[in-house]
């Protein structure tokens, strides 16, 4: 029975083929005008002439597919897939595209019915069962459109992410990015435009190491406190580009202060061209964090320690020259003296406060300090020598 119905339908479609073909350009024109008037996405992205030609091509292909279907031949879906790819690249919403296919199907069926009614009215009842075939064909086409569209969209998204990451690295540094600070103005402008960064603004960089939970997903995008962060995730750390706007750097610093996180934050800079150096300064700030524990450090709060961290060779030399005699002591005595000197510096030079932190008597602190002076040949009362001792202690912490 199905074979008979389809044979009859094929005969009818062949008989009215020329008459139906003459109707298709007008149908394509009407549908194109309606779509452009009703769908803002089409109106913004697709030229009227292109849309008319595409609709006309698809209508002709649908009628050919009806004949193929009635003859039990497979429907060619390559054109539908091609349309899906093209429209995805153009950025047309998939829902708009599929809706246009379905509208075209309804108009095509109406044209087929009207043509048969005019050419061979007696055959009209035999045509009606074929409406199911037409909708099956449209379902196949819209399915092919969706598959190709989604694959292309995924590929485009992946390319956008790769490009975003590459341009992020141009500004802030990363594998393969060797742009000197202040150089590569063209690349900086391109990267800034792609990432939506103003030529003049208020920016900072954070370099974060965490216990594995990461912070990017929790602090990405615009925030109610006036700043936003874009993140670049690496194997062992994350880099955040902070756009402050009118917000305060302290708000961003506090937002980073979550359990399991150590972070270094650069000073505020005024343009994307300064972000490359800001990233380096943020890394130096991170190096001043204590080895264990949670801490967010702004570079300007740790400049002496940052100076030591930035010059590792000189820091090692400073440590050896200034603290050498202390470092050669037995471990227990060495650590006791260094802890005392550190506590005294942290206490702002107050032996009383340092004694409280060390759970010992004030005189004990003073005795240990004199022992350090004897070993190093440097006096904590001499400003220059005290600076040497302070920097050497920072170097010993590394």
Automatic annotation (TrEMBL):
A Pfam family hit: HTH_30
The organism's place on the tree of life at top rank: Bacteria
Domain RsbT co-antagonist protein RsbRD N-terminal: 25-164
Coiled-coil ranges from the UniProt annotation: none
Protein name in the entry: PucR C-terminal helix-turn-helix domain-containing protein
Domain PucR C-terminal helix-turn-helix, chain residue ranges per copy: 337-395
Gene3D superfamilies cross-referenced by the UniProt entry: PucR C-terminal helix-turn-helix domain
Membrane-spanning intervals of the chain: none
Organism, as annotated: Rhodococcus tukisamuensis
């Amino acid at each position: 029975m199905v074979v008979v119905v389809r044979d009859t339908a094929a005969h009818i479609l062949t008989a009215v083929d020329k008459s139906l073909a003459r109707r298709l350009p007008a149908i394509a024109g009407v549908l194109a005008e309606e779509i452009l008037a009703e769908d803002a996405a089409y109106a913004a992205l697709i030229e009227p002439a292109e849309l008319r030609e595409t609709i006309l091509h698809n209508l002709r292909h649908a009628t050919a597919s009806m004949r193929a279907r009635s003859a039990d031949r497979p429907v060619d879906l390559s054109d539908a897939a091609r349309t899906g790819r093209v429209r995805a690249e153009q950025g047309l919403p998939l829902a708009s595209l599929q809706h246009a296919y379905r509208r075209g199907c309804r108009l095509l069926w109406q044209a087929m019915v009207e043509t048969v009614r005019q050419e061979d009215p007696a055959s009209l009842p035999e045509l009606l069962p074929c409406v199911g075939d037409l909708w099956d064909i449209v379902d196949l086409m819209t399915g092919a459109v969706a598959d190709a569209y989604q694959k292309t969209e995924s590929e485009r998204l992946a390319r956008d992410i790769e490009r975003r990451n590459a341009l992020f690295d141009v500004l802030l540094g990363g594998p393969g990015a060797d742009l000197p600070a202040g150089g590569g103005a063209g690349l900086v402008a391109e990267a800034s435009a792609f990432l939506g960064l103003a030529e003049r603004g208020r920016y900072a960089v954070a370099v974060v190491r965490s216990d594995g939970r990461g912070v990017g997903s929790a602090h990405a995008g615009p925030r109610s406190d006036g700043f936003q962060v874009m993140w670049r995730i690496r194997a062992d750390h994350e880099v955040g580009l902070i756009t402050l706007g009118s917000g305060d750097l302290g708000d961003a610093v506090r937002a980073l202060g979550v359990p399991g996180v150590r972070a270094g934050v650069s000073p505020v800079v005024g343009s994307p061209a300064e972000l490359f150096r800001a990233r380096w300064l943020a890394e130096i700030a991170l190096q001043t964090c204590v080895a264990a524990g949670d801490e967010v450090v702004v570079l300007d709060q740790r400049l002496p320690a940052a100076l030591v961290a930035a010059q590792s060779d000189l820091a090692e030399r400073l440590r050896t020259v200034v603290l050498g005699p202390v470092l050669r002591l037995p471990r227990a005595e060495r650590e006791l003296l260094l802890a005392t000197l550190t506590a005294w510096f942290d206490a702002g030079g107050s032996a009383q406060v340092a004694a409280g932190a060390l759970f010992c008597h004030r005189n004990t602190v003073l005795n240990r300090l004199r022992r350090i002076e004897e070993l190093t040949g440097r006096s904590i009362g001499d400003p220059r020598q005290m600076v040497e001792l302070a920097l050497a202690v920072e170097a010993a912490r590394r």
